[in-house]
Amino acid sequence: MKFKLNNKEIELTDEEVQEIVKQNPKPKGVEIKRWDKDEIIFTSTKQTVKEAVEEAVSNEISLEYANLINADLSNANLSNADLFNTKLFNAYLSNADLYNASLSNANLRYASLSNADLRNASLSNADLRNANLRYASLSNADLRNASLSNADL
Q1: Dmax over Cα atoms in the chain, in whole Å?
Q2: Alpha-carbon distance 40 to 102, whole Å?
Q3: What is the pTM of this model?
Q4: How far apart, in whole angstroms, are the C-alpha atoms of residue 118 and residue 20?
Q5: Which one in 25, 91, 96, 136 has a CA-CA gap of 20 to 30 Å to 10?
């Protein structure tokens, strides 16, 4: 078989190609870990955190206690997600679909939730201090005991 490598054409036998493939397995996807102990919650087939979280949610896998600090989840489809007690500190969730999501006890300090769909979401006891909630849809959201000081509503 002929291949191009660094603009040079090389020829490899089938055995050589198989050996290269065996020595260089396909990279595994993103691992989502708990924040409170060194334990993997979910190993994704995807290569980005956003895709991994969406994959877990679409497979109805609970992401309770997930460490998603600084995660870019903007425009993510997370409706019905179980994100109880998840660390989403400084996460980007702008335009995210969080309809009916469970975010109780979640740490969302400094998170960007602008234009997010949080209708029917449970945000009880969530820490939303300094979060950006501009233009977020909060109809029927449960905000009981949520910390909202310095949040941008």
Answers
A1: 67
A2: 20
A3: 0.81
A4: 48
A5: 25
pLDDT tens digits, one per residue of 38-65: 899 999 989 899 999 999 999 999 999 9
Rounded Cα–Cα distance for residues 68 and 59 (Å) = 18
Pick the closest to residue 71 from 28, 35, 120 (CA basis).
35
- For 60, the token pair is 């109805």
Taking alpha carbons only, the member of 74, 84, 75, 81 closest to residue 56 is 81
> Tokens in use for 21?
């493939």
Q: What is the dihedral of CA 68, 127, 125, 100, to 10 degrees?
A: -50
Tell me the backbone φ, ψ of residue 53, rounded to 5 degrees: -65, -45
Position 142, amino acid:
D
Query: Identity (one letter) of the amino acid at 76?
Result: A
Tokens representing residue 20 in the block: 């290269």
Residue 30 and residue 124: Cα distance in Å, rounded?
A: 29
